[in-house]
## 1
Amino acid sequence: MVDRKRAEMRRTTAAELATIKKNPALISLMATLTVLASLDNEMQIQLVAMLVIVAQRPGVYQRDMDGLSGFSQSSVSRNVHALSRYRRDGLPGFGLVEQRPDAKDVRSQRLFLTVAGVAFVSRPVEAGTDPQPAQAMPKPAIDAFAGTHWEVWVD
């Protein structure tokens, strides 16, 4: 089975590799990942998902986050606390999201980006929409592909 898969595998050509390296979506993704890594180079994708949902839906109820994200309510709670000023264990959080009680029902929490959260979320957008050519992009966005071995599976 493994030998058959290896036989189906081929290396990318130089032209394909050049096309992959110049792909604007990949360059934008690398710029965004570089910004996320500046906050925490081991940030979990769940934290990123929570941050994106709160950024897209300011004032979202925390109780609705499990349906929007697909994560369990306990995961939502843990990640929202990690994005807040303090995590549940009392250690410092990222300070990007704040919980506010709802005006009609103080038991319900609404989620908003903090000033730092708005500034942080704005950084990837600016880096990803920069109209400069690929060679003028920040060094991590281009060097992220240096020394990468590319292989493509062909069926």
## 2
Amino acid sequence: MTQPQATNRRIVELDALRALAAINLVLFHFTHVYAVKFGYTAPLGFEWPYGAYGVEMFFILSGFVNAMSLLRRGQPGNFLLARLIRIAPIFWVAIFANMWFLSMAPLDSQTVSPGQWLANLTLMPRIAGYECVDPVMWTLQIEMLFYLILAGLFVSGALGRPAITWSVLVGMSLLVCPLHDAWQAAGSDGLLVAAVGLLRRVLLLDFLPLFAIGYLLYLVKIGQGNRWRNLAGMFAAAVVFHQIDHGKHNPVATALIVGLVAASAYGKLPVLRLRFFVFISTISYALYLFHNNLGCVLIQRFDHAGVPPVAALAIVLAFTFALATLITTRVEQPLSRYLRAKFLDARVAKSKAANAPA
């Protein structure tokens, strides 16, 4: 069965959603997480505790956008290479920068072994049993594994039967996650428990329903397959996600997020085309990588120097967005352009030439 075909038009509103997710994440870490983990010297006066919903939206959005990217290219190798060029170089810069950040209060008590540093350089330290040097980076490991899963499904031809493929994977989430949770709660161990736990992590079974929602929404958008079957698959994936997430997310919020992504995909939210959102989307990756550990250090310095917590937060927010802008324009974008020109463009041209009619 042939793979579905993608459209080439970039959807600005979806980029804007990435901006909203980034803003949500920064506010979550600088208000709620910082207050719980380190504590302001005086009450901040407010918190933004909704970080989990930003992650939820990001994974649904990732399912949609990466389906569009992979199916547009039709070349899983080029898809993975493009993702690696986009993600890895600036990520490695962030890892080495964290060697400095972690040496300063309030982070200097977080010891990191050489093995943990090396594992973090792979972009997927949790597979090797290590924690991320910056806690926020756990979602990047999920993203990297999703790229590999998506490319593997493409190569195997499984994406040619998306209803069956996603039904099987989401069904595995419903079966494996509660079973593994029950074993852990009972204190069970052994080879079988470890193997099932590894399967759960590698196949992203806790989050796969969210990616499935995004992927199937893309098929609905391009008119690929039976519309009602794809919509039913989205609904089933949402139900499974709330069956396995232990009540961490509100189903109403999930419905609103799916509606927001769908409305953006169909261009029904023109307010998201404002330059502000487009700009934040552009710097969102650098903002994601560099805001948390450095921001916590700076908040602590200002807060303990007598700056009112709200003022300290405002200063650090301004600095963080400025730094992300500088890193994006002066490091990330030039480096990505160079690497794409050197390693990717020739592969893409060769693929087009090989597929051109005689």
## 3
Amino acid sequence: MVKKVVRKGSGNSSKRKKRRRLWFKRIRFLCILMTIGFIIWGIQNCSPKDDSVAEHGKSSVQTMKETAAETKVAPKLNTAKTESLRKELTEYIKKFTGQYGIYYYNLDTHEAIGIGHDKEFTAASTIKVPLNLLLYEKVRAGTTNPDGTLAYLKEDYEGGTGILQNEEFGKKFVIRELSRLSITKSDNIATNMLIRYFGLSNLKAYMRQLGGKIVDETKNTSSPEDMGLYMKTIYEAYQGEEAFGKELMENLLHTDFNDRIPALLPKSVKVAHKIGTQVGVVNDVGIVFAQTPYVIAVMSNGVGEKEGSNVIANISKKIYDFVNTAQ
């Protein structure tokens, strides 16, 4: 008979292993309890404690939406107050064979007048207004450096207005200088360089984003109302904190072409504006800094340059007299 040999201390070792397993089970159980406790605590402290807190959060979101909506005040179009001016302007433009569209918007009272304001017209160089707004937006967002440079390429060349026509291809120009030239000199080459940089389709998409209704992918068209909207947006940028918005307004205040909106107004009145001219097309859109500032946009089709300029100047004077008489 073989005797079973039991080594000394083996019983104690087995007991110790059992005790360790028991302690591990207890520790694991405590960890589970602590985890559950932390979860319950987090739910209680992160959730609204009562209806008033939940309602407060909801009202904050509503306030943000309402604040955004307040910046886009709907114009009071053709009100009783403005009806006499609308009739006067309507009778005035009937004297001429060309087609005119007029939009007036008071930046303080939000009263507006529209005569053919939503009709499609050739934009000509007034397209440089939303183009420079797009540049402003990119500078404000930090995605475009106004002190960066663009090279003048052969594809940018265009005759007509401007001072870059005699420059050599490959020469680099600072973006903010191209912006200034596109407004003050109505430089077509500077404009083409900026359009190439941003992309024509992106410009048209931005015009729609601003609220433009007459936007065509292949045609350079707009409406007096849309142009008025773009000028209003520039005014808001000018009123803001961004330096480039003020720079854009300064460029519009110092354009070389002043035979239309500012022509018959007092010399002391500041006018920020952009003209547009093609064969049969005479336009001008701007902001008149009268005692009550207002937006004016006049576009035309089938007119001569001299007649069209005179008509716009007279429309501008009639609106200015109306605004200042109404004070």
## 4
Amino acid sequence: MFDISSKSDTLRQATAQAIVKASSTTITLIKNGKSPKGSIVDAARLAATMATKRTSDLIPYCHPIPIDHVKVDVSIKEESIEVAVQVKSIWHTGVEMESLTGAAIASLTIYDMLKPIDESLSIESIRLIEKKGGKKDFYENYSRRLKAAVLVTSDSRGKKEDQSGKVVINKLKKEFDIADYKVIPNNTNIICSEIIRFCDELKVDIVITSGGTGVGPHDNTPDATKKIIDKEVIGVSEMIRAYGQKRTPLSMLSRGLVGVRGNTLIINLPGSVRAVSESLDSLFPGILHIFKMLWGHTH
């Protein structure tokens, strides 16, 4: 199976449809409640619901996921029975296979129940109607490329030895042009000066710092950041720590701060390569909406 451990939980939703073609005589029997094996509507609803919850047992590469909601609609048309299965889950991965499996099993159940009286039966289609809730739904479109600056604070590393800053650059370059990248000592005044330069002179859209977020004697990045921001964005820093805490019990020790100066977003990340990578996974794509907010656009 694919590794989805880096994905964030979001509300995922999918709707699939199956169509079973039947003769007009069979449709009349169904409408009159004379189907030989009982109500196909009730049976299809039960079958779809059960199949949805067992999808990972039936399809080898599907992840077992929590199912929060299943809605099954069965419509009797003039020459067909249509089944729509909607599935919802708050999880790392989507639910399209669950909705498709539910629709497929419902249509097979209908076929099984009607085959004694209708040799013309056929399952015409099983298809996905809609899916939403994954990361793609939250990417923003901008009229220009966004600009970023990366600042690594370390008393022991230079650019040659730095790894975390390069991870940040690789993660950002899809959405941002990298305007500057520096490695500086853990000195409060130097950190303040560089962040101000990024914001006020280079006018970048985002500044990502790496390092100096702990409680050690040389961990000064959050303190420096707090001095020069206009507003703190507490929810983002809380989310980064909560995301990290599910992966390591040490995440809670980070004092990383997130705030804005003018129209620039500033995000403090830890110094380790793993922590930086995981933190960035948690940020995107949701964080991209903040730039429209900073520019005064409506939500």
